[in-house]
Amino acid sequence: MKCVVLAFFACGSFAFRVSEGDDPLQIQVVTQADVHDQIGTNGTSAESGLTIREIRSPPASQLVDDLNALYMGFDENDRNSPLGVTMRMATSDDFFLNCGHDCFHGYSDCKMSASVYNHRVMRRSDGHINVAMNRDSGIIFNQAAVETTVGKCFYQYDGGTYFRVNRGCGSTANGDCNDPEGAFLNNATGEDPLAARDSCESHRQRHGSLPERNGQLCFWRGPAYDATGATTQNQLFDGLAHRIASQQSQGDKESIEAWNEIVLDAAVMQQSLASDPLSVVQAFFHVSGTHGRRQAHEMSARFAADYGATIPVIELDPDGGKSGEPFRLEQIQSGCRRRRC
Prior knowledge:
- The protein is of the alpha+beta class.
- 26% of the residues lie in helices and 19% in strands.
């Protein structure tokens, strides 16, 4: 009987395949494209029938370069430009996905909020990045996933989404955990008026224009907007472009510095984390010159324990926004021991 065992080990953009069968043990170097060719849509090797998890974490230095390019790449006049970097400022226990568990304060279920950072938004006039809520550490999400699978909707400023139906992308409801019409139990989605009424499309139809910073908030739909899985036109670029137009129109520093909110669908994230955790989270980070290093490493360690994937920890230097390089490798700080700063 011929027995075939495949294992893949990643190194940058290459993977090493170890196979054992009738021939002596062999090691081959294969590209990521080769890996995808041998893995079906369900993540199973066509050759062996074994379920395989592909490890794709790039070297931290390459990741930093990629994130800086994403940060600087947005152009509101080019729909094909990258949106930026999606980050959630967090504490050490903040990656818990409240989805499918007990009601929590009546909040909408299965949502996670973050912000899109780029060289045009959430920054001071000198380029210094305005970190949301002045927190010290956070999570960087896989931008491709945000723009194609887990991004649910975008508010040009804080959307106040705790009690919004449709997992944060709909109208505001009450916080009664037992009320079918409340934010926690309400199933409105798609074109249901309770979900769609606060979309920017609906707002424009009703009011003839879109709001600026001090106007009634509306949201732009992302790929995960419809909880039934129905195809949705991706409007994330339109939301960011309107945010910049609002900044220019109002002209005050608060319009530029205030955080935006992008809602991620935690139910979709759960599915992706189970099969490929690196497709959801790219890095954990701490803000340079703060005490966030310990928190970032604790999140990375817990993620490895929960999902079996090692996620790199890097630094965010808010002043680096001035030079276009806010992301960098961790720097050694005097007095730090075992990365517990």
